[in-house]
Structure formats: structure tokens, C-alpha cells
Write a structure and sequence with these properties.
Family: Belongs to the binding-protein-dependent transport system permease family. HisMQ subfamily.
Protein name: Amino acid ABC transporter permease
Oligomer: single chain
Membrane topology: Multi-pass membrane protein
Keywords: Amino-acid transport, Cell membrane, Membrane, Transmembrane, Transmembrane helix, Transport
Order of helices and strands: HHHHHHHHHH
Organism: Virgibacillus byunsanensis
Number of helices: 10
Shape: flat
Distance between the termini: 53 Å
Length: 221
């Protein structure tokens, strides 16, 4: 009887809807972070550039993005840029991916800048003394060492971006939060549904955090 009651409860009945939403949540996070890594790498290295224009451009980008909430950025991209500026109705999914890429890119930029800056200057000098150009020194000597140091904070950024997607329900992204709202608006079982949402997030964030802690200890050794 208890088993039957539990199986008929919102804890179980909401799962198919929530898992569909979770797939969208993970897809937006992974795709967004892929492009965010590209943007962040360019921005991080740009902030280390000797060219004042390049350094200034990426510095402004980082400060503006880090100084504004991701919800405002998503609304700006979905309603402001797509409709008012370029006159195209981009999908909410695309707007979510762009928002994650732009937002995460600003934070990844600081991760990249800090990791590259942390490499001893002697490594730069060693590369140049071997006859390597500045770009070759960065590519073959500095970047591999810096990237190793970036891995733990990049993992943390994945967790942050995953949770940030929860605000995209306001632009009608069919993520796990949006699907939860759709479900409890019909069944009125709010508490049970939101408990399952939290558990689904924890099923991703907790194992990821444990793995990152283990990886960080291994890298320190």
C-alpha cells in the first residue's frame, strides 16, 4: 500500500516531465560552456595583451558581464537584441545558450588570465631562449601548464552555469524549472515537484563537486 501510494505521488509522477527538462538544462550548459570556453580563452589572453585596445576591449566585456545578472542578460538577448536590434526571433534555447556562453566567458576569462599569469616568468624566458616565438611559447610551454591549473575552477564554473540556467524559464526555455512549473500548475503539487527539482540538480552537482575535489588533490600531488 505504501509502495503504491509513493508510486502514485508527485515525487514519481513528475519525474518524466522533469527529466525531459533536465536534458535541456544539461544541453544548454554544455553547449554554452563550449562556446564560453572559446570566448573566455580569447578574453583572458586578450587581457594579458600588450595592445591597449585589445586589453581594454576585453576588460570592458568582462566587467560589464560580471557586473550584470544573467537574468537581465538573457532577457536582453531574447527580447532586446533578437527583436529590436536584428529583427530576428531566435529560439529561447538559442538565447539560453548564448547567455551562458557570454556570461561564463567573462568568468572563464579571469580563470584563464589567472592561470597563465601564475606560470613562472622563467618559463617564458626559457621558451624564447630556445628560439620559440611568443605565440609558440604560449602554445607549447605556457598553455599546457596553465590549462592543468584551470581544470578545477572550470569544473566549478560548470556547476555555476548549470544552476544559472534555472532563470531561463522566464524566456520560456523548457528546462527542468519550466517543466516543474508546468506540472505543478496542473496538479497543484508544488512541494513534491520542487523537491524533485532540487534532487535532480543535486544528482549532477554533488558527483561533479566530489570528482573535482578528487581531481584537485591528484593535480596537487
Amino acid at each position: 500500500m505504501i509502495y503504491t501510494t509513493f508510486m502514485d505521488s508527485a515525487y514519481v509522477q513528475s519525474l518524466p516531465f522533469l527529466i525531459d527538462g533536465l536534458k535541456i538544462t544539461v544541453m544548454i550548459t554544455v553547449i554554452g560552456l563550449f562556446f564560453g570556453m572559446i570566448i573566455g580563452s580569447l578574453a583572458g589572453l586578450g587581457k594579458l595583451s600588450k595592445n591597449k585596445f585589445i586589453r581594454g576591449f576585453w576588460s570592458v566585456y568582462v566587467e560589464v558581464v560580471r557586473g550584470t545578472p544573467i537574468l537581465a542578460q538573457a532577457l536582453f538577448l531574447y527580447y532586446g537584441v533578437s527583436e529590436d536590434l536584428i529583427g530576428l526571433n531566435i529560439t529561447s534555447f538559442t538565447a539560453g545558450v548564448i547567455a551562458i556562453a557570454v556570461n561564463a566567458g567573462a568568468y572563464i576569462a579571469e580563470i584563464v588570465r589567472g592561470a597563465v599569469y601564475s606560470i613562472d616568468k622563467g618559463q617564458h624566458e626559457a621558451g624564447r631562449s630556445m628560439g620559440l616565438t611568443e605565440n609558440q611559447t604560449m602554445r607549447y610551454i605556457i598553455w599546457p601548464q596553465a590549462f592543468k591549473r584551470m581544470i578545477p575552477p572550470l569544473g566549478n564554473q560548470f556547476i555555476i552555469s548549470l544552476k544559472d540556467t534555472s532563470v531561463f524559464s522566464v524566456i520560456v526555455v523548457h528546462d527542468v524549472v519550466f517543466m516543474a512549473k508546468e506540472y505543478y500548475n496542473t496538479t497543484f503539487e508544488i512541494f513534491e515537484t520542487l523537491v524533485m527539482v532540487c534532487l535532480l540538480y543535486l544528482c549532477i552537482t554533488v558527483p561533479t563537486a566530489l570528482y573535482l575535489n578528487r581531481l584537485e588533490r591528484k593535480l596537487d600531488v
